[in-house]
């Protein structure tokens, strides 16, 4: 049986949304156990004892890491927090994977300092799966902020790990791997990106060269490699732009008189289908690749649905033995 | 009389769109002369001799720098190209400012190597004015790609120059200046951004601290400072996301049956008003700040309208003596 350790106290809708997602997921993931870490009084407000069965366990914890906590300090001081205790269960092999909606920095710290890195991986990278213009398939982008400073070697390792993820979890054949850079030509960028380009070209990856920011969302690449600082700025800029545009669109449609309102009502199914095509939930959460177990962050604002998909994603990572594959790969090269 | 040197051969719609814009602008800018550089046979296909009057002059050139030319080589080899000859006119004080829709890298090279830097400015930065969610006012972001590698001192100079631009050209009182970083706290980022933060906090600027990618388009800051690599990725990601979303929106509205089509037709004025609120043309082109004359790049795909606004923008930069103010400022500090 697989076991997922779940920080039940992280995120804006905790613990209810998390419990709802687990109750839904357990029916599909019949060979998986879910351990919920958190304040048991809070948890049992939403979890009925008769729902627990063999698949759900609750571990009472007395502290919570908040978004304003300084990550490394928090995991040292709040030793009985839901996130830290969940991470310890993974470290001690009492669970196979870790899910949290809480403080991203603290989850990174839990991954690195409690669960630990895969041997041979220099630095873990944070990797979401994003929807693209092309639709269903989406793409992976790594690193989007686990590292403020990067070396070319990190980028190569991230590319290799994300390539395995795209193949095994998203079923992409021979994933197209690209480097986010400030121009198409091979000599573009600063020394970090020039060197990363050269090194990527020498790997066995299906490296298609540089792509620029404006191509990120087109689906041209299945895996986009970037340093954590640039990746963070690019991803957040994309999210910000999408949010501003959709907000302005809504505002335009609602505040331009009756005729527009009627038009908006008639066009609503189309607007909803647009939303569906741009579904960020379906691919699950952002994976901290390079950690010695699946460690996944779902957005703090998530309701039940993205959490449910993240549970499916983790289940697939366990079924496909992704971490074992990465362990094997990096034990050879280092 | 002010004189603007115009590369009439750059961009997809050259020379027609450029000539149309000049013909429109000359009526408003009655104290300005426009010198068009390019193949005169081409130019006189669209420019009637009787339209020229006192305000338009044509200088015949025999070469054109294309987008695929390597910038520095191109400006060395194509000495009789429209862009290079126009830049030389500015250097020789036969013109006060330079406008091109051509190869951005070559225009940067013309600015740096032919026109020259303002004394005391280490590196020029490329700075567009972008529309924001807040509407009319927009914001400046610098550098968006003139420099692949940056030092903290460059960022401080860019912030100061952009601040003058926001004050004098966009009439923003006490512009709010922010640093694009990977978190809100003052210690966020790599050493480059940590140091830039410290230095910005010590200036007289109205420095409001770090902003993240998702806040770029909100209008929270009037001036956003960033290193050229990150700025390039963020800006292009924003443009790419906007283009993908609008494309998908259009597709959804047109390909979802008759009811949706009717709805879209009814809502069209609202959708157009959205487009207007997000008008990237009205603020003109991207300025190469730090060059010893206004050097402005307008998008290669521009039709008449953005070029017209760029001419107004350049006129205002000349009227407000922006370059003289920067010269004065940087002669003191260095």
What does this structure look like?
The structure is a homodimer of 334-residue chains. Helix content of chain A is 47%, strand content 17%. Chain A has 334 residues and is an alpha/beta fold. Chain A folds into two domains: 2-119 and 290-333, Isopropylmalate Dehydrogenase (3-Layer(aba) Sandwich); 122-288, Isopropylmalate Dehydrogenase, CATH 3.40.718. In chain A, a hairpin with a 2-residue loop joins strand 6 (129-132) and strand 7. At the A-B interface, helix 9 and helix 10 of A face helix 9 and helix 10 of B.
Largest interface: A-B, 59 and 60 residues
* Strand line-up across the major sheet of chain A: 3-2-1-4-12-11-5
Oligomer: homodimer
Distance between the termini of chain A: 32 Å
Second rung of CATH, namely the architecture of the largest domain in chain A: 3-Layer(aba) Sandwich
Strand-and-helix sequence of chain A, N→C? EHEHHEHHEHEEEHEHEEHHEEHH
List low-confidence stretches of chain A.
Answer: none
Please state the structural category of chain A. alpha/beta
- Percent helix range of chain A: 40-55%
Shape of chain A: globular
Mind summarizing the main beta sheet of chain A?
A: 7 strands, mixed
- Radius of gyration of chain A, CA atoms, in whole angstroms: 21 Å
The count of domains of chain A is 2
EC number (chains A, B): 2.3.1.274
Enzyme class (chains A, B): transferase
GO molecular function (chains A, B): glycerol-3-phosphate O-acyltransferase activity
Protein name (chains A, B): Phosphate acyltransferase
């Amino acid at each position: 049986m697989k076991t997922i350790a779940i920080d039940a106290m992280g995120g804006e809708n905790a613990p209810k949304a998390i419990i709802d997602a687990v109750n839904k997921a357990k029916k599909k993931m019949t060979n998986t156990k879910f351990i919920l870490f958190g304040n048991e009084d809070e948890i049992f407000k939403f979890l009925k004892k008769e729902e627990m069965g063999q698949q759900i366990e609750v571990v009472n914890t007395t502290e919570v890491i908040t978004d304003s906590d300084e990550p490394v300090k928090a995991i040292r001081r709040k030793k009985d927090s839901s996130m830290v205790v969940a991470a310890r269960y993974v470290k001690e092999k009492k669970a196979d994977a870790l899910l949290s909606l809480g403080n991203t920095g603290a989850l990174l710290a839990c991954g690195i300092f409690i669960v630990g890195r895969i041997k041979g991986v220099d630095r873990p990278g944070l990797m979401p799966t994003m929807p693209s213009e092309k639709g269903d398939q989406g793409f992976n982008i790594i690193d989007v902020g686990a590292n403020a400073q990067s070396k070319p070697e990190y980028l190569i390792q991230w590319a290799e790990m994300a390539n395995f993820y795209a193949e095994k979890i998203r079923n992409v054949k021979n994933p197209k791997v690209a480097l986010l850079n400030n121009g198409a030509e091979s000599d573009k960028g600063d020394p970090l990106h020039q060197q990363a380009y050269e090194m990527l070209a020498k790997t066995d990856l299906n490296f298609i060269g540089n792509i620029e920011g404006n191509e990120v969302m087109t689906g041209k690449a299945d895996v986009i490699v970037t340093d954590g600082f640039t990746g963070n700025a690019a991803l957040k800029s994309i999210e910000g732009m999408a949010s501003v545009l959709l907000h302005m669109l809504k505002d335009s449609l609602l505040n331009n008189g009756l005729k527009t309102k009627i038009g908006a009502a008639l066009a609503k199914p189309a607007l909803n289908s647009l939303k569906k095509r741009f579904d960020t939930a379906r691919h699950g959460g952002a994976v901290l690749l390079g950690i010695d177990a699946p460690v996944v962050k779902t957005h703090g604002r998530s309701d039940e649905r993205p959490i449910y998909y993240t549970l499916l994603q983790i289940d697939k990572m366990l079924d496909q033995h992704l971490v074992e594959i990465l362990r094997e790969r990096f034990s050879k090269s280092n």
